[in-house]
Design goal:
Elements lengths: L1 H12 L10 H12 L8 H8 L3 H11 L5 E2 L5 E5 L9 E6 L4 E7 L3 E7 L2 E3 L4 E2 L4 E4 L4 E6 L5 E7 L3 E3 L1
Antiparallel strand pairs: 1-2, 2-3, 3-10, 4-9, 4-11, 5-8, 5-10, 6-7, 6-9
Length: 166
C-alpha cells in the first residue's frame, strides 16, 4: 500500500501532462480515494456481510474509521472502534494494531474472524494476511502473530467468548 501511495502521490504532484498519465484532476481524485475518507469504500459489501449490517451502515463506519482516534485497549499497540450500527455480534469491532507489534500467544475460547482492511500481519506459522484477506481461527485454537513493520493493520474483527493469554 505504501508503494501505491508513493506512486500516486508522485503522479498527482506532476503538473505536466504526460502521455498515458491521467489529468491533474483525475490524479487528485485517485489520491483522495487512496488516502481520504473513502479509502475503505471497496470493502463496503464485505464489511456489511462480515458484521451482518446494511451497506449504508458499513459505509458510514468505514468513513468514520478515517476520522478521529481509536480507543486504546489493554494490550499496548491495540485500539478499537465500535462495530457498525445494527451489528448484533457480541465482541465485534474494528481493530487498529500498530506497526511491528507482537500479540502474545493466546487461545480462542470461540471462533475468531478478522477481515483485513489495511496493513498486514504474519502468523507464527508464517502465514500472512493483508488487505482483503479473511482470517479465521477455530474455537480452542492457539496462536500469536506480528503486525508487519510497514504500517498499522486495520481490520474488522469478531471473537466469540473471548481469549485466554498464555
Amino acid at each position: 500500500m505504501d508503494d501505491l501511495l508513493e506512486v500516486v502521490a508522485l503522479v498527482a504532484a506532476n503538473d505536466r501532462a504526460v502521455e498515458g498519465i491521467p489529468s491533474r484532476a483525475l490524479r487528485q481524485r485517485i489520491l483522495e480515494q487512496v488516502t481520504g475518507p473513502e479509502r475503505y469504500a471497496p470493502f463496503t459489501r464485505r464489511v456489511a456481510a462480515f458484521f451482518g449490517v446494511s451497506e449504508e451502515s458499513a459505509r458510514e463506519s468505514l468513513v468514520a474509521l478515517t476520522r478521529g482516534p481509536f480507543e486504546p485497549l489493554a494490550l499496548p499497540g491495540f485500539a478499537r472502534r465500535r462495530a457498525p450500527a445494527g451489528c448484533l455480534l457480541p465482541d465485534a469491532m474494528f481493530l487498529r494494531l500498530d506497526a511491528g507489534i507482537r500479540c502474545p500467544p493466546h487461545r480462542h475460547l470461540g471462533r475468531e474472524r478478522l477481515l483485513v482492511l489495511e496493513g498486514a500481519f504474519v502468523e507464527t506459522d508464517g502465514a500472512r494476511a493483508g488487505p482483503g484477506d479473511l482470517a479465521e481461527k477455530a474455537a480452542f485454537s492457539s496462536h500469536s502473530f506480528r503486525v508487519a513493520d510497514d504500517g498499522p493493520c486495520v481490520c474488522a474483527y469478531s471473537i466469540e467468548h473471548g481469549v485466554e493469554f498464555s
